[in-house]
Design a protein that fits this description.
Blueprint (H helix, E strand, L loop, with lengths): L21 H24 L13 H6 L2 H16 L11 H23 L10 H4 L2 H19 L2
Helix pairs in contact: 1-3, 3-6, 4-6
């Protein structure tokens, strides 16, 4: 007769918590929607300043203009901030270091890319519409990295 297996305490042990939780699914949905919002606006709705023409649909997105980038990046940054909770894989154990360093490096790369291509920013998608607001995107990304840094033990 074998011994009964001990019940794992999934929510108590921060190293072996559940992989899927409601918060983790919410962060995935927010991140995907944020990225999709930016891509859809850039490729479908936005009027290319060089070619001109009519904006695509839906009309409300065309009316909002560059506010669409705030919505898309805002959803992405909120998703990353929510993922720093211990109930998500990025919020416990080595996931914190991955999230922290990932946000720091992506923010730094965003700013460096903006500065390298700043003389001819028209060749870089999304960055060409944001202009100096690219600095804000990179700094906020690094700020999200500091949310992870506060969770690091």
């Amino acid at each position: 007769m074998s011994k009964p297996k001990a019940k794992r305490q999934e929510f108590i042990d921060p190293e072996t918590g559940p992989v899927l939780s409601a918060r983790f699914l919410l962060t995935l949905v927010l991140a995907v929607v944020g990225i999709a919002w930016i891509i859809y606006y850039y490729l479908v709705v936005r009027v290319d300043p060089v070619k001109g023409g009519k904006p695509g649909g839906p009309a409300f997105m065309a009316d909002w203009g560059n506010w669409n980038y705030l919505i898309g990046f805002g959803l992405l940054f909120v998703a990353l901030a929510l993922a720093a909770h211990p109930s998500t894989p990025l919020g416990r154990g080595q996931g914190i270091v991955v999230g922290m360093l990932g946000c720091f490096i992506l923010g730094l790369l965003w700013i460096v890319t903006f500065y390298v291509f700043s003389n001819n920013i028209t060749s870089v998608p999304v960055m060409n519409d944001l202009g100096q607001k690219n600095l804000f995107v990179g700094i906020v990304m690094m700020g999200v990295g500091f949310i992870y840094a506060t969770k690091w033990e």
